[in-house]
Design brief:
This protein is an all-alpha fold and 310 residues long. The chain contains 12 helices and no strands.
Length: 310
Amino acid sequence: PWAFRQSGLFGGAIGIIILAFIANYTIRILTKCSHITARRESVVDPTYAQVGRSAFGRVGEIVVYLSIILMNIGICGSYLIFIGQNLEELLHPYWSGFSHRVIILLLMPVLLTFSLLRNYKFLAPSSVLGCLALLTSMAVVYGYGFSEGVLPYDQLAGFRWETYPLFFGNAVFLFNIHSVVIPIEQSMNDQKKMYYFRVLDFSMVFVTLLNMAFAFICYGFWGDNTAGIIIQNLPPGALVNVIKVLLCLDLLCTYAIFLLPMAELIEKLLFVEPEEWSLISKHSIKCAILRFVFVLLTVGIGLALSLIHI
């Protein structure tokens, strides 16, 4: 919604559709490049780095490594900040000692457990929970907004070219999923892979329309008073607290989805994977330690950014 405040109603709708087409096209190209790399280099499940090397040589491989590590650590760190700050607001009336930094540290056992997952199928229940949490939150925002009424059209901007770049800077994160699409496709069985692109198209259309409608309508509710986080436009109360908890659960699930591909990428670079996976082996222990290090990095990023008030 805040992005539509920067672009205007029609500017935002057009921009979202353009971003959706670009995201869908580039995800398709990326997946096909993965298939080509698998055939060319005779590997079963090529990593992003292998795809980068196949396309652009050693330089492409290095760029991919750096890009995925920096992007995923930054995203996971920002998720932790959001979770910590919202839980701090909820717990502060009962115990002022629960600062968002303390909450981030207390979440570490959960994050470390998520980091040990070896396959995306184990995240299916949490992903469904996250989607339900997000949809419930949107329904509550709709309910409150419609009860207050929609602003007259003359109080809403159609296009805002002077702040349009701010729209793209915010809205692009809606489609920032390229670092997880290859591992997700590889975790599917052969029968389901046949429908991968069909599911991709349906998901892209559904997510685009859902978010475009939500942003369009919420901007209609609050206009130029639309907050960066839409729940800040709601009055305080038990229902808003429930929304905050649901959004935190959603981001906690998403944290794991972004952490896994980064960990798998570096594991394949540093360690030789044995033919048979064992829960208790030198290889599994090395991988667990590496994943714990990544969790610590994301926690460190979250704490550091919160200290400088970003």
